[in-house]
Amino acid sequence: MGRHTGDIAVSIKQIAVLLLAAMVVTGCGKKTDKMGRVRPPVDELSDGGRGLQGKDVISASDQMAQDLLASSEINRSSTQLLIVVDRVENKTSTQRFNMDIFLMRLKVNLAKYGKGRVQLIENRDKLRELQSRELETGGGDQFGQGGLGLQPGHAGIQPDYALYARISELPNQDTSYFFLEFNLTNLKTRQLAWSNAYEVATNR
Question: Which CATH class, in words, describes the domain spanning 43-135+157-204?
Fold first, then answer.
């Protein structure tokens, strides 16, 4: 009787060890928050997810950065190209969503991997917003007129190119086809210096 009881206890311990090992393997690669809850990897599709997901942001921005930095327009230049990142035109059925996250991650990739070849220039409106908050005006009258600091009429450094994107959608009954178009436009000649696209079909 005692021997059988001991065998059962050993079996239970073995099962517990196997279950613990399975949990560790299953959770491998996943992160947990401060509450210990498992968070899905950002580069994987979430179960039951619909529409564009984080994986699409990562895949699109990685592909576009590699292709843009390998383009002849970038590599044949003897000087750094000055690029300003504009915005994403959302032409999808859910236009209330801000799709600028695709360009935001692409911008970070270009800054990370394009050193020596491209120089990113701050967007004009964002620059003026920062200047109005951070620069002190001096030398003006009691109303702050005529001083130094923010000077909207001052040209400063001008970008050579503007990078923007457009996201279009072809919805169907159960799925949607998304076409994400990325363009680099020469601001002096109006020529389209580079263009590429990311395509994906998703559940609705």
Answer: alpha beta
Terminal Cα-to-Cα distance of the chain (whole angstroms): 61
Q: Are 119 and 80 in contact (CB under 8 A)?
A: yes
Any idea where the domains of the chain sit in the sequence?
43-135+157-204
Q: Is the entire prediction scored with pTM above 0.85?
A: no
C-alpha radius of gyration, the chain, whole number: 26
The size of the chain, in residues, is: 204
Model pLDDT for residues 129-187, shown as the tens digit of each residue: 998 999 886 544 444 444 444 455 556 789 999 999 999 999 998 999 999 999 999 99
98 in the Ramachandran plot: left (φ > 0), alpha (ψ -120 to 50) or beta?
A: beta
Percent of the chain predicted with pLDDT > 90 = 54
Q: For residue range 87-114, what is the model confidence (pLDDT) as tens digits? A: 999 999 988 889 999 999 999 999 999 9
DSSP label of 147: -
CB 114 within 8 A of CB 82: no
* Phi/psi of residue 38, nearest 5 degrees: -75, 130
* 117 closest CA partner among 89, 150, 83, 149: 83
> What is the Cα–Cα distance from 63 to 106, expressed in whole angstroms?
9
